[in-house]
Amino acid sequence: MSNQVIPTGVFDTSGNEKDSIVVTGWVLDQVLDAGKVETAYCKLVQRWPILSSRLRTRGKKWVYEIPSKFDASTPQYIFKKVVIPGPIEKTYKYPKASSSISCTVKHDPNDLFSQDGPRSVGAYMKSNIPVAQLQVTLFDDATLVGLTTPHVLCDGHGNKEIINAVTRILRGEDIEDLPSADPFTPFVIPDDKKDEPIKTPPFWKVFSTWDIVTFMAYLAADFIKTRDISNRDIFFPKEEVERIKQQAMDDLKKEKGDDPEAWVSSSDALIAFCLKRVHPRSSSTTPLNVLYSANLRRYLKHPAPLPRPFLHNAAMTVVTPTLPLSAIHTLSLGALAYHVRCTLREQTAPEALDTWLKWRIKNAGRMSLFFEPNGGAWNVVTNWRDMKLMELDFSAALPDGQEGNKVKCLYLFGTSFQPFPVRNIMGLVADDPSGGIWMGGFFSDKKVWEREDGFKEFIVQDS
């Protein structure tokens, strides 16, 4: 009996993120029964057999191969239990929610969430391991749950779907089958029309070899100029989120009056707030674009909404109209947040979505897709807030006799392994149970987070 072969999705392999490995982790305040988690995960793999598949190539195409037979050398799933005696604080000082805005250097204890896990697509291709691996790390007073997947299989929301299904099985719920059809095939240009020109989305282009060389040169120069940048976690307590959003709304009220379209979300306001601190005051006319991820699970309506549950990639990227770098500080907080909001509104409209998807899928496998003008400044912003990752309920995995206790998520860990260095990236990660919001990204080590415009001091911590 031959292995079952499932093609990767046409959208999943259309972008550079397909070469990344994603690790998502939960820091929980109680000690779980790892056996219960493993049993639930085993049931899920049997219900969603793609999780037991191997990532392979057939010709130039990537595929998932599900082995016809599983044994010790060809495991159906990988579940790792790690026990570390003592309290979690002795091993892992994870960032914590605080009463004021805090910025903490991020330490990546990858082995606590993904011990011996694959770190590259090449490792997946060469190894006889399933595409997903689940790990539970137990301390005397806490538990870490870590999920590792290749980005070509899942985006962040897909990882959430896997863990959400595990928690539902733990509660005795039934799990829906995954859809078998690729919902993005309607956006594939037919062979008889592939030579016809296709509209390019705003601020995007297919890089030529010279564009790649130029971009890498600018990237190297930026790295040399801003070597003080490091990966950090930022926590905004509830009152600061409200304060920042209110200032943005007050700015819009002054500048646009009672225009009902002049509003921004708390996410828009936090992005603007961070952009103003990432970029120092300058009179530079260097062009700036902000790339912002949008979840197609929310926005795609035609020809049909994406099915649920949907594991695969569904993040599109909108690009803000070009601004001079100096505008980051000449614009008010509200105007900058509104610049992001208008971009999201316009570029997720049905016609714009159709154009972007067809263009990206048509250009899959060509030179890197990016934005223009090449050589300008840029920031990439992701938004995971609507995944509600810290709200997943692991309580059903507590040991027998602890029924009724509630497990709380204290911190959400996330990292990725990529074949290229990443910079200029920030993300809205999750809403904390306290009402605050977690962000992360590459920020300056300098104290640029000081009291300004009525905000409390941004406390910079080095550990």
UniProtKB/TrEMBL annotation:
Transmembrane segments: none
One MF annotation (Gene Ontology) recorded for this entry: acyltransferase activity, transferring groups other than amino-acyl groups
Pfam families membership: Transferase (PF02458)
Matches recorded under Gene3D superfamilies: Chloramphenicol acetyltransferase-like domain (3.30.559.10)
InterPro entries assigned: CAT-like_dom_sf (IPR023213), Plant_Fungal_Acyltransferase (IPR050317)
Top-level lineage group: Eukaryota
PANTHER family hit by this protein: ACETYLTRANSFERASE MATC1 (PTHR31642:SF294), TRICHOTHECENE 3-O-ACETYLTRANSFERASE (PTHR31642)
Protein name: Uncharacterized protein
